[in-house]
Amino acid sequence: MAAAGVVPFLPAAPTASASPQHPDFTLVHDGTAVAIHVDAADDPAVLRVAGDLQADVERVTGVRPEVVHTLPDRAAGLILVGTLGACPVVDRLVARGRLDVSRVSGRREASVTRIVERPLPGVDRALVIAGSDRRGTVYGVYDTSERIGVSPWYWWADVPVERRAALSVPAGPFVRPEPSVRYRGVFINDEQNLTTWSQRTQEPDKNIGPKTYERVFELLLRLKANYLWPAMHPYSDFFNKYRENPELADRYGLVVGSSHPEALLRNGVHEWAPWAEEHRGEDGALPVYDYTVNPGVISDYWRARARENAAYESSWTIGMRGLHDTALETKNATTIPEKVAVMNDIIADQRRILAEEVGAAAEPQIFIPYKEVLDLYNAGVRVPDDVTLIWPDDNHGNMRQLPDGSERARAGGNGIYYHLSYWGRPRSYLWLDTTQPAKVWQELRRVYEHGVDRMWIFNVGDVKSIETGLSLAMDLAWDMDRRAGGDAEDFLGAWYGRQFGLRHGPELAAIRTEYHRLAAERRPEFIDRNVFSVIHHGDEAGRRMAAYDRLLARVRAVGAELPAEYRDAFYELVEYPVHGAYLMNLKYYWADRNTLAVRQGRGAGTNRFADLAEAAHTEEAALTKRYNTAVAGGKWDGIVNPYPSQIPKAPGRPSVTRVAQQETSGLGIAAEGNETGAERPLAFSSLTRDRRFVDVFNIGFLPLTWAAETSHPWVRLSSSGGSLTEQTRVWAEIDWALAPAGTLDASVTFTSADRRFEVPLLVVNSAARARGFVEANGFVSIDARHTERRVARGGAGWRTVPGLGRRTGAVEAVPSTADPVTEGHASRAAELRYRVRFTSTGVFPVTVLRLPSLDERGARRLAIGLDEQPVTVLTGQNIATGNRGDAWARNVEEGVEKLTGTVTVAAPGEHVLRIFMVDPGIVVDQIVVDTGGLPAAAYLAPPESHHPVFNPAPGTEPGLEAPGT
């Protein structure tokens, strides 16, 4: 079948095992390949894809089959490729009952692949690939390519095709049913790197032209996509500049549309200025792109493109925004009602143009209420019933709103415009694929539950680096129902097994899941100074970097096991994203340590941190240079650049400070939780088995000798002294077997020749055991999935979404179409329960970290309570403002929203903390109760508290330490 260890990632279908009565179909044997027959009268897209199958068989075997248009007089085997109603030989097989197309006929883009014995006079066996329409046939052919071991990413990610001398496909029938979503595609956007690469390696005289689009078209079809919004920015050539582009798209069988500011396939960035120049007013003035000022000139502008592209299968964007992704300009309409009336006039004009120039073929027509247009839509814009509403996310993977009952009943249906890459407020993410697959999964399932199945369009930036996210999106768009019982981790395991061999799939899926978890804490493109604390929670920034360090070690271990021919693909799909994200975070970690060192008055150590920060930036640059100049022989020159010149950049080189060398020395310390000194004691609990650090440093440059002494023998240190030039980190732990029971005071004393520092320790050695989470060190921290009990009520419940959020999974209120519960929560609302043992009493803040989902026509609420006390409803941000610095901006930067209420603990002991669904679709990630010990300066929630089942021995992972210290 396929290459050893490689499993095709294809939809399930009834497949019979090979037997003497039903043997597999041989494609190549003894250096001879069976011919591929395709009728010359079939669609050009089908004729073309037969050539791709021909090339794929040759890629696997080195033998190139012949493509024929006439039936052979005699053949032991033949591949028959044809479309129902367009291929006479396939139609005859159907008419004679030799080919069952009951699950295909009359459907969109469906296909069946089946072995037929003695299909024709003189032909012993045939592998028949029959499609319901032209794209159905194309997808059937590409299914066969995958089944013989050719990845859709063989070219775009250099996934090798393992060679085989003999080749066959399984005996049983393979059916690809109609897709879940009718139009599935991508928007190439913010494409400066793709433009640079295209101009350097594909078409030196163009900035993304036909040769590049051919590669894009093939990739989309191999992924079973059918739809494209082409590149549209000033640095790339607009799609219709080259008439070969729409002609090629039609020959490939792709539908071409345009984005929200590009009405009726017009690229305003490039095309409006020359049109305006040719249509100056009587006074010689240039017309502006404002329908309230120049409706006639603008209408003619749209009409010209409608007439020009009428012959092609297109998607027509109606409505209007400003040029180049700017807001709608309406000089003569200043109020919302006036702007609504203008938009209604615009839509009526465009519909008239399409009826006159394109006719009945002018479908689908789409209306995209993006940014300010959503406000106008909600204020009363009338969108004709047969037009598809395309609902946008907030550019950060959170759907802004979804259709209500009347909108779901529209003849035109509903679609989404979803970002896997984005340029804009509050921050851009254009460099790496950093949206959690589980988040994409969860949001798309919510979308599908709301009946949004007409069109899904994904912003994929430069295409490269979004390989995994794009593959997942297209897989879900094809068959959402098949994925109902699985999750994103299942997909990742199968997908990576498909690219690198089955045995590596689980480990690569785990690596990718951890990579995305770290990005969920903060995307590498969003990293900045002083985001993560370097003094709290065991140095939360250092622990994060240590997690990255461990992850990179796992990446290298898998890479070392792969054959040499897989190294390029592995670098592109696994190593570069992980290593690049690691270094982007690392340089800011060392820069933050450098800044703190300056405040602490460190000497040589300050400069060491500056060196480490700059070394990480230099290593990151070398990593990218390797991608662009060495990987695949320099094939991807220019495709990856964190710092492009014309679009928002990833964080660059952080500034650092160096201090002048002085021939002095002196001891300094900073205990965990303190920038300097040890005013905040180090807290230890026998239940959490904490490790705490003390940074011991030199305020000068000459070596010094230091020593550390504990007040009690049950306090253990990782180091008790030595010679010090820069700094070292000393870890303190408690030997709980030796420590007496109760609340204990202890200390560690650090001394040098002329200095002495005492660090206080607060130690709680409790023999108590609890059935739930335990308060310790002044807080309780809970991963939301670790429930004592989940209660379903009112037709709603909860499900865990593995790989979602900042931990290992989050909990979602389902179904997303459930009714809100606005009163009587304790008896009517779906509930999460957590057993907690409190040692403190009082009124305590409870912070629920939820994923920042939106609902601009509703609310985003949940409720909290303790035991049988009255509940408190917490209301989250439900609107995407598009601003910087506000609540929405903070939520998308941090990947969570923190909702805080209070509970009253009247007596110590065990209590039940309760979380209630108020609005459906709420996703809870973590819960933190502050009983007086939670530091305000920390970015992340503290490590999860002790729980006898979920977290019996929490401990603390060590952070990343400066080398040589």
TrEMBL record:
<feature type="domain" description="Gylcosyl hydrolase 115 C-terminal">
    <location>
        <begin position="772"/>
        <end position="944"/>
    </location>
</feature>
<dbReference type="GO" id="GO:0016787">
    <property type="term" value="F:hydrolase activity"/>
</dbReference>
<keyword id="KW-0378">Hydrolase</keyword>
<dbReference type="InterPro" id="IPR029018">
    <property type="entry name" value="Hex-like_dom2"/>
</dbReference>
<dbReference type="InterPro" id="IPR042301">
    <property type="entry name" value="GH115_sf"/>
</dbReference>
<dbReference type="InterPro" id="IPR041437">
    <property type="entry name" value="GH115_C"/>
</dbReference>
<dbReference type="InterPro" id="IPR031924">
    <property type="entry name" value="GH115"/>
</dbReference>
<protein>
    <submittedName>
        <fullName>Glycosyl hydrolase 115 family protein</fullName>
    </submittedName>
</protein>
<dbReference type="Pfam" id="PF17829">
    <property type="entry name" value="GH115_C"/>
</dbReference>
<dbReference type="Pfam" id="PF15979">
    <property type="entry name" value="Glyco_hydro_115"/>
</dbReference>
